[in-house]
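A reminder from the course coordinator: this example appears on the midterm review sheet, so study it carefully.

Given structure:
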């Protein structure tokens, strides 16, 4: 029996930069003169890329960043916001479901996803950072969920479900009602950013973390990510049973056996991802 596998190392992205080095895939949003906004095309291409990462077993971690001094300013005013005001309800629902599909794809890929956030991180850009597994920011990073400032609900792309789990209900409510930017210091203190680094260290530190993860047990990482997502809707009893099954599965992997043998021999294990 054969299963579909893809090799994304040679993929040529059209609407952002993409490269693969040492098992790490790098997505760079690349319209720096406009603070790297998203367009209809980049939304769709990002969704498709993250969907296909499920089938690439050689890419073991992902870093998302923005070109220049900013992460992402959200949906492009002229390329997205303007056209949305002229769409019919079915067309609008197609778009909003597509943006949700990008969130599902980032959360659903087996790789650990790290957002490297500098400067402006607003709207859909803040959502991409929010749904990543980890976030590293700079002291000048500002995350803003500013949907209400353009007359939209703050509940875009899963924000009302996910952001309170990261920073707390009251803090999330404040950011979404007011649309104000969360400073880097607030973001670290509240748990949005895992750490803050100097701007010149953002990509090196994100790369270091990603490469550390890439040399780790890929299957175990993907299982951990899956359980972190699934257990949101479980009772403690259900979570305990689900984790018992997940751990039993991991105990049958070659990585588990290799780790034991390496520990016994007092050497570093070499994980194969299965």
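Designed residues:
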């Amino acid at each position: 029996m054969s299963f579909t596998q893809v090799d994304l190392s040679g993929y040529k992205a059209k609407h952002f930069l993409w490269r693969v080095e040492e098992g790490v895939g790098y997505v760079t949003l690349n319209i720096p003169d406009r603070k790297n906004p998203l367009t209809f095309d980049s939304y769709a291409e990002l969704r498709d890329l993250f969907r296909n990462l499920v089938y690439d077993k050689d890419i073991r971690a992902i870093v998302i960043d923005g070109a220049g001094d900013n992460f992402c300013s959200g949906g492009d005013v002229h390329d997205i916001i303007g056209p949305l005001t002229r769409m019919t309800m079915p067309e609008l629902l197609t778009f909003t479901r597509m943006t949700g599909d990008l969130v599902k794809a980032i959360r659903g890929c087996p790789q650990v996803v790290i957002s490297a956030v500098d400067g402006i991180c607003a709207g859909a850009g803040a959502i991409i950072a929010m749904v990543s597994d980890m976030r590293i920011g700079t002291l000048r990073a500002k995350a803003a969920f500013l949907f209400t400032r353009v007359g939209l609900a703050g509940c875009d792309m899963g924000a009302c479900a996910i952001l309170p789990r990261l920073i707390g209900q009251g803090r999330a409510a404040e950011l979404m009602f007011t649309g104000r930017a969360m400073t880097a210091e607030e973001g670290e203190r509240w748990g949005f950013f895992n750490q803050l680094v100097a701007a010149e260290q953002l990509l090196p530190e994100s790369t270091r973390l990603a490469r550390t993860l890439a040399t780790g047990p890929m299957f175990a990482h993907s299982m951990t990510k899956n359980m972190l997502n699934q257990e949101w809707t479980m009772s403690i009893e259900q979570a305990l049973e689900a984790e018992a099954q997940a751990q039993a599965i991991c105990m049958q992997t070659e990585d588990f056996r290799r780790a034991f043998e390496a520990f016994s021999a007092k050497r570093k294990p070499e994980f194969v991802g299965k």
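The mean pLDDT is 94. DSSP finds eleven helices and nine strands in the chain.
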